[in-house]
Amino acid sequence: MVRINSLQKSNNTGFVSLPKDELEMCGLVDEDGKPDTDIQLLVQMQELGEWHIKVLDEDAVDSSWYEGDGTPDTGVSAGSAGGTR
Q1: DSSP assignment, residue 20?
Q2: Separation between Cα atoms, residue 35 and residue 41, nearest integer Å
Q3: Contacts from 10-18 at CB under 8 Å and sequence distance 24+?
Q4: Residue 70 phi/psi, 5° resolution?
Q5: Using CA atoms, how far apart are residues 70 and 20, in angstroms rounded to an integer?
Q6: Which helix (H) or strand (E) holds 22?
Q7: What is the predicted pLDDT for the residue at 60?
Q8: What's the pLDDT tens digit per position in 59-72?
Q9: What is the torsion angle, in degrees rounded to the nearest 10, for the CA atoms of residue 80, residue 55, residue 53 and residue 36?
Q10: Closest to 27 (Cα-Cα) out of 64, 72, 73, 76
Q11: In the predicted structure, residue 9 carries a pLDDT above the cut 90
Q12: By C-alpha distance, which of 35, 19, 37, 16 is closest to 27?
């Protein structure tokens, strides 16, 4: 799944958002449907301008819906997530 997000700023720190529908698909939301803040993510720069994000505890991810290798088809089209153009 590909999304184009703008870099946001909070307390002079840059951040991007993760799509809620994909977090839900992976079981990374709490019982209220909000992102589970107990889940720890590893964010690592791979190359200049490229980062990799991974859930540290792979057992926390619900993979029962996913079949195959590579990028899963989430059924959500690519596009800009919020913001203005």
Answers
A1: H
A2: 12
A3: 17/81, 17/82, 18/53
A4: 85, -160
A5: 20
A6: helix 20-25
A7: 87
A8: 888 888 777 666 66
A9: 40
A10: 64
A11: yes
A12: 35
